[in-house]
Amino acid sequence: MGKQKTVLVIGGAAGIGKDVVINRANKGDQVVFTDLNNKAGNALVEEIASSGKNVTFLQHDVSSWENTKEIVEKTVNKYGKIDILIHSAGITIQKPFDEITYDTWKKTFSVNLTGLFYAVKAIIPEMLENKRGNIVIIGSGSAITGTGGGVHYAASKGGAFGLMRAIAKKYSHFGIRINIVAPRVIETEMLNQLYPTESSREKLLSKIPVNKIGTLSDTTNAINFLASEESDYIQGQVLLLDGGRTYLT
Amino acid sequence: MLQLDLRDKVVFVFDGEHAVGEEIIKLFSEAGAKVLFLGKSNLDEDSLVLKYKEDASSFEVGSFNLKDNSFLKVIQDQIQVDIIINNMEAMTGKDVMDISPEEWENGLFTNLHIPFQLLKMILPLMKNQEEGAVINISSTSAIDGGDGDVLYAASKSALESMNKALSRELGPYNIRVNGLSVGSIPNDKDVESDLHSIPLNRFATPTDIANAALFLSTPMAGYISGQTILVDGGKTLL
Ligand SMILES: NC(=O)c1ccc[n+]([C@@H]2O[C@H](COP(=O)([O-])OP(=O)(O)OC[C@H]3O[C@@H](n4cnc5c(N)ncnc54)[C@H](O)[C@@H]3O)[C@@H](O)[C@H]2O)c1
Fold this sequence. Notes:
heterodimer; A: seven-stranded parallel β-sheet; globular; B: alpha/beta; Rossmann fold; eight-stranded mixed β-sheet; 21% strand; binds nicotinamide-adenine-dinucleotide
């Protein structure tokens, strides 16, 4: 997959982002990852260090512009450039419409959409300077199907689609690529909470044509593909990662 | 049989004081509907002005706070809303690097937060009626990135996803939720050459949009929900 890259993973202390951090560290990339969760971030640094690799963790609240700007500055100061941004930070506060308060709505947007806007806003000038850059956003199948998470979650994740396309429209000419990986169900902590029993798992499985719940390798593989030169001609796209569920059932 | 009669229906058009909103109000009034709409003058969380139009006359109903139930107090004599049309629209016309956090936040407030909170206030009424239509007006920018305004494109694609999620939740109450994805209405910057990308060889007019909204509001669209219909002269062929 080519030579060493500088990779910034936002929301990298858990779940999908964490798996990418570990994978990239093992490949020998220069990895900086951020997360709101300081404890989990430091624990991951330790975990990776025990296998003889080095990664940098910076605590980060994506809903703060100042903080995000600082994260990008620190990463550039350390490595001179950022080749790849992987944006995975996100929250789900699952609720039926009637129970979504104004504050929950705004909070969901401030992390899932404004957080993404800040990251892109901060990183585009750096990528322009290098005349290249690759952004992979972890979106969600919810934006396409309206299921999972609730109206606020689906809407906030849907916002990423337009944002991604506006960036692609404006910056394709400048060597910047941007795409979305949109998973539906992936084996994470969150999934255990949503489908706690054997029977609920089986019911879920019966809806997925390939008869498998997505794994963290599935997301990492898709993210790595979009972040690589192998996908050089893919631009402004949403890669739906759903085992065939959305269109085939 | 044509069913474009909206007598005894109340439509709430969020933004009634811009070209598209004005045209929607005109057309829906002609179809017999009574119209509620927001006064554009101040988009303030604490006091939004609600106006009412019936036949040729319009008047101010009162002002309400987005964060409490004062909306219901304001419309107490008028506790019926059959159709909601969200045509709020804020854009920056700027590059991502030049949009300040405040501009972004103000944009989300107009495009998403106000519509969400209004829907929250009105939908219980509609649920009781066990009938209703919600229309969110979006833009082809959500699909093609428009002129690169991330605030606008992101707000519009968010609405399209909201339509899908809402249509699932409200379907059991016989409330249909749809969207109109509108192609360019010409502004000063649009030039004749832009027409090349539009098979129908003309820009959209407010009437094109109002007509489509009218269709989606009537029983003629009674089995359509969760959709976003492109009203773009054939420009987007996906
Ligand atoms: N797991 C799934 O099945 C699934 C499906 C579809 C989409 N997604 C999306 O994938 C992304 C990652 O999800 P995940 O399953 O790995 O979740 P996760 O909760 O395991 O990881 C998300 C990380 O984001 C961090 N975070 C939350 N708020 C933050 C903030 N304000 N600032 C910085 N970091 C913050 C969390 O601390 C956490 O470490 C999310 O955007 C989610 O919407 C996940």
